[in-house]
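Hi there, hope your week has been kind to you so far. Thanks so much in advance, here it is:
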Amino acid sequence: MKHPLPEHPRHIAILRLSALGDVCNLVPTVRALQRQWPEARITWIVGKTEAALLEGLSGVEFKVYDKATGVKGMRALWRELADTRFDVLLHMQQAIRASVLSLGLKCGVRIGYDKARAKDWQHWFTQRQLAPHPRAHVLESFMDFARALGVEDTRLEWSLPIPEAAYAEARRLTGDAAYLVISPCANPRLRNFRNWSAEGYAAVIEHAWHRHGLKTVMSGGGSPQEREMGEQIRRLCPAEIEINDAIGRTSLKGLLALLDRARAVIAPDSGPVHMANALATPTLGLYATTNPSRAAPYCWREHVVDRYPDAVAHYLQKPPESVTWGTRVRHSDAMSLITLDDVVGHLDALLAATASAADTPEPPSMEPES
């Protein structure tokens, strides 16, 4: 017998701890739930860094779980929520850590991914599973949770909060001139292989300066790998080109403001492309090791540089249509399939397509996908 779903949930729990790009892709689902049940209380159990990015999101109460605290942190959260019973738990994190964390939460029904999409045995920890949705984008997979509860209005809405102090932080870095943001590095974890070359980025920066009159601001975290990449790009750029290395020099809210004010953003599959997408900033994603049909910046998919099929064919020796959805190409040379012509051609097209919006003080409006 299936556990019944609440028709009018009064308290909804969302369990999604990470990562920055994923939580940005989840916000439209939160907004859809709020439109359906404006009086419902929403509690989002989220990671520490992600909470800093989303702080102030209207109508949402955050409960932070720091993964570094392990089981001790789980127990602390369970004690904090000991007197709370959720009508429904939307289990959106496909990781055994999150599933264990979910066991200490009291709720009427737990919804998770269907068996085809579930990882780490997640379906063992939920009572209801989503309807199958093969080959879904990450954002659509999150929205499937709202659909499972009967939500039909799935218009895309973000409204990420950015305080004025964050805009002031961004202006101190950029001034008032138009600029391009390049976030050259993805997460520097082992065997990530999502980064393009320093030589390629330097050539794009030169192109943006001479062709479009855009200075470049580089953004990113403060890891040694990211700082080294930024320094290498700067060394490769001609001295007369205006470039601002802000890698490791912004808060998360400051980074949001920086992306929000940018003329365009270029980055590999990483948090900044999804943050920029959420802000309606023209976004150019560079993809070869991950499938953009699943993980591209959702509203700018037609502008993605897509060398994923070539990478699958060359490095996995398989037809692209034969690999499972979400397969990664874990080869250090895969991103070299992206050429300079690929990137500058897409950048020129993106800037041309959004030129009229750039003349207005507000970012372009986000039209929902039908």
